[in-house]
Amino acid sequence: MKYAKFPRTDITVSRLGFGCMRLPTLDKEGHPIDRPEAIRCIRHAIDNGLSYVDTAYGYHGGDSEVLVGEALAGGYRDKVTLTTKLPLWLVHEAADMEKLLDEQLKRLKQDHVDFYLAHAVNNERFESVFPMGLGEFMDKMKQKGKIRYAGFSFHDDAETFRKVVDYYDWNLAQVQMNILDEFNQATMKGIEYAASKGIGIVIMEPLRGGALTRNVPDTVKDLYAAMPVKRSFADWAFRYLYDRPEIVTILSGMSTFEQMEENLRIFDSAEPNCLSPEERELYVNVRKAYEARVKVGCTGCAYCQPCPKGVRIPEIFRAYDEASVFDSFEGFYGRYKRNWAENVCVKCGACEKACPQHISIRNWLETIRAEVDAH
Ligand SMILES: NC(=O)c1ccc[n+]([C@@H]2O[C@H](COP(=O)([O-])OP(=O)(O)OC[C@H]3O[C@@H](n4cnc5c(N)ncnc54)[C@H](OP(=O)(O)O)[C@@H]3O)[C@@H](O)[C@H]2O)c1
Is 259 a domain residue? Predict the structure, then answer.
């Protein structure tokens, strides 16, 4: 395992972090958590050098924090840096912030966390919740010893990212970045800007929720196959990120023991500045090959859920994008008719307000339904 230091802190962590949003579960819909397996994974990772654990109020319907508290009992807490996040969408007045943090500490069975992040910051939340005194709240919680450092996780555009970076003396910014997102959301330039201000960068969705390892199109496989060194798809995707010295740690949601073991192996050689010029060119070409095929671009974060009408948006989009990548629409149409046809979108738009990717969800649902009806 390789390690890196958060600038302007006394904290050094493993470059692979455990993202507790996609823990092993008993069913494929993401619940309930397979508790013994999730605890086994987290503890095995820690026993093998992982030292950063990321959770949040809402993950696994609120159960992720409870599970993390259980996994970190028995001495494991002392071996990790622990991060959780303030659910900004539940903050209606300033007093809600500390109430939520207290509830989270109780769930986690902790008296403090190392990093506390404003969760899923976007322009709307920046303008509505931050003026309630978010910065003052973070200062106060540091003084009370409930949090050590403050940060934010982010889903919006590069312009908003800069505004948020400049708002407070943050120690951590958590951003979505992977081979496909160099110019999306915070952007790689935004990451460089935050790092220049002494903010440690944490990456989420490094495998785009797993999509970069699943059903990889032939055009992309050929590009990887032409390289002299052979690596797994996950390895290529992580390598693109751990090359960057600004990036302190890369969170992976590890849904199986095998994935966790592979990721531990990959991060044994996660050295910054490792890419050759040929590898840099490879990533540009891989991005182009993907961009030529993906239609919706949903990452499956499920912030749009639950839909009031029960439309399983992330499942539909994931299946549709996979069908687009592989040109395998017949299988998709059958699956749609079996699983998703009954729940019809009424275009209320609640999903689009919550979507960090700003996907035109209603239009896509309509387009896809029309395609299915025509087959
Ligand atoms: N703050 C926020 O707004 C926010 C948003 C998103 C995420 N996060 C945090 O960031 C963490 C990381 O994001 P993420 O979970 O999307 O990470 P990710 O690494 O992009 O995706 C995780 C998924 O990738 C697949 N995977 C992992 N390792 C693999 C391997 N070695 N080989 C093949 N497939 C592998 C698994 O999917 P399958 O088993 O389904 O294939 C797994 O569920 C989250 O867990 C969460 O803690 C925060």
Answer: yes
